[in-house]
Amino acid sequence: MIKRDLKERLLHLSQTMPVVTVTGPRQSGKTTLCRSCFPNFPYTNLELPETRLLATEDPRKFLAQFSGGVIIDEIQNCPDLLSYIQILVDENPHPGQWILTGSQNLLLLESVSQSLAGRSAILNLLPLSNNEIIRFENHPNELNSTLLTGGYPRILDQNISPYDFLESYISTYVERDVRMVSRVIDLACFQKFLALCAGRTGQLLNLSSLGSDCGISQPTVKAWLSILETSYLVFRLPAWHGNIRKRLTKSAKLHFWDSGLVCRLLGIHTQKQLDLHPLRGAVFESWVVSEMAKYRIHHGVTRGLFHFRDLHGNEVDLVEETPEGLALFEIKSGMTINQNMYRGFDRVTNQLTNIPIRKKTLIYGGSERAALKDIEIRPWSEAYSLGMST
C-alpha cells in the first residue's frame, strides 16, 4: 500500500495526544493507515460480533487486554467504550496509547466530543487524492480515466474494476450505513435520491427541487442529505458573502468526495460515455474542488473554501480566503484554453472592488501551464497542490 498524505500528521499528533481518532468513509484506508503507522500495536475490530459483545458487556475486561497501545477499529459500534477509555486516559495521559477509527462521522464525533473532549485529536481520511493515486504502479494518467476510477484504495491496490467495486460499495456500505444512522425504510427511494444528488454535483443546492423530483418532503431531503454527509459521500461548498453589501446567492454548492462514485451513479461506464456526457464539466468541477479540500483537510485545515455567485449570475467556481485576500479559481474541463474560460474573473472582480484579490487561477482539462495577464493557468493534474495558496 502506498504512503498516505495523512500519515505525517497522524504520527505527529500521536506524540502529543493520548487518543487519536481517525474517521472517514468506509474503504478509505483508515485501518491500513493506522496499522502501517503503529505496526507493534495490537489490533481489534468492533465490527466482529464476538469482539463487540465483550466490549459491550465487560468493557473493563476488554480494555485491560491493552496496556501499551492499541488500534480499535470501528469504535462507533460501541460508543459507551469511550467513557471507559476516558477514565484510563485521565489516570495515564501518556500520548499515543489509543488509536481509534470510525466510519460514521456524526455518530462518532458526537461520542468523542462528549467522552474524550480535550483528550483526542480527530483526523479525517478521505478517498485518495490524485497526489496519492499516482504513487500506485498502474495508476490512471488521463483525466477521463482518473475521473472514472475515483479514489477508493482497493480499486487501485487490487486492480479491481471501478464499476464493479462501486456497485458493491453502494449496496453493501451505503445501505448498511443508512440503516445505522437513520430509520430509512424505503431504500429504493433513498437510492433514487442518491442518484438525483449525483445529477446535481457541482450545482447550487435546491432542496425544494430535489425533494420534488424524488417525491419526498423538504425535511426528509435535509435528513437524507445529512446522512450522505455523515457517510462522507457528499459535502456542501458554502457561498462566500464576506461583508460586502451586494445581493449574493446564499445557496451552497453540492459536491461529491469521489468522482468514480458520481460516474457510477450517473450510469457512466466508459471514457467515451464520460466524454459525451452533459455533466462531464460538473463531474470535473467536483473532482477539482474535492482535490483541493482533501489537501486542506489532510493538512489540518477544515475551512476557508467557498464559491461565489451573485443574483446576476456572475460567479467563480471556488474562492479561498487567505489573510492577504481572496484567491479565485475557475474550473473548466476543456483541454484547449480559450477566452470563455476566464471571462468570469473580470465580472466577479468588478463586484469585489473593495476586496483584495490575491490571485486568479484557471484549472482546466489540459496538460500545459500558462499565464495570461494576471491569471495563472494550471493543468488538472496540479489541482491537489493548489489546495492552499502560498
Describe this structure in words.
The protein is α/β, with parallel strands linked by helices. Among the domains are: 7-124, Rossmann fold, CATH 3.40.50.300; 130-232 and 258-274, no CATH class. It is 42% helix and 18% strand. It contains 17 helices and 14 strands. Helix 8 (143-149) packs across helix 14 (259-265), helix 11 packs across helix 12 (207-214) and helix 12 packs across helix 13 (218-230). The longest helix has 20 residues, at 162-181.
Give helix % range.
Answer: 40-55%
> Could you give the count of β-strands?
14
Task: Quote the beta fraction.
Answer: 15-25%
Distance between the termini: 30 Å
Strand order of the largest sheet: 9-10-11-12-14-13
Features:
alpha/beta, five-stranded parallel sheet, single chain, Rossmann fold, 18% strand, 17 helices
Can you give me a brief rundown of this structure?
The chain is an alpha/beta fold and 390 residues long.
Secondary structure topology:
Blueprint lengths: L6 H8 L4 E5 L6 H8 L5 E3 L3 H9 L1 H6 L5 E4 L7 H11 L6 E5 L2 H11 L4 E5 L5 H4 L9 H7 L3 H5 L4 H20 L5 H12 L4 E2 L2 H8 L3 H13 L3 E4 L15 E4 L2 H7 L5 H6 L3 H19 L6 E5 L5 E8 L2 E8 L10 H9 L5 E8 L5 E3 L2 E5 L11
Parallel strand pairs: 1-4, 1-5, 2-3, 3-4, 11-12, 12-14
Antiparallel strand pairs: 6-8, 7-8, 9-10, 10-11, 13-14
Helix pairs in contact: 8-14, 11-12, 12-13
